[in-house]
What we know:
Blueprint: H1 3-21, H2 39-43, H3 50-68, H4 73-93, H5 110-132, H6 138-163
Helix pairs in contact: 1-3, 3-4, 4-5, 5-6
Amino acid sequence: MNSALLMNVFRFLLLLAIQVVIFNNMNFLGYITPYPYILFIMLYPVNGNKSGLLISSFLLGIVMDLFSNSGGIHATACLMLAYFRPYIFKFAFGLSYEYQTIRINDNLTPERFSFILVSVIIHHFTLFIIEAFQFNFVLDVLLRTLASTVFTILICIILIYLIKPNKR
């Protein structure tokens, strides 16, 4: 096995364990639930296997569904994020995405922040709209998406800097 694959497997297991053990037990004010496990999808290598990303995103989501007893909403939201990830890259980074010169876990720039922001919004909106599954709860879905997005982004940025390799 090469080191990139081992790093992805380790990241998958670590983020899933952190989410299940710590963040699944957090619920602030009934609206805020951070989901930093989606960092796996965001940090997946840009030039990595696209079908591998979709399969691992589905597995990530389905395991989250098993632990959360949520009936497939995490798997759907993870697949949605993985599917739209190339378009989010093009939106946030422009042409540099096509040359695959970007690394999400470098210093936080406006492009990287916009990538994280759009990714989290897509995941959370999909997750909460499927969870509510009624048009009557649109305001509730928007409020939960906004509140959870803010906390998830903060936690994701903190986790990115914690797992960032030193460049000595």
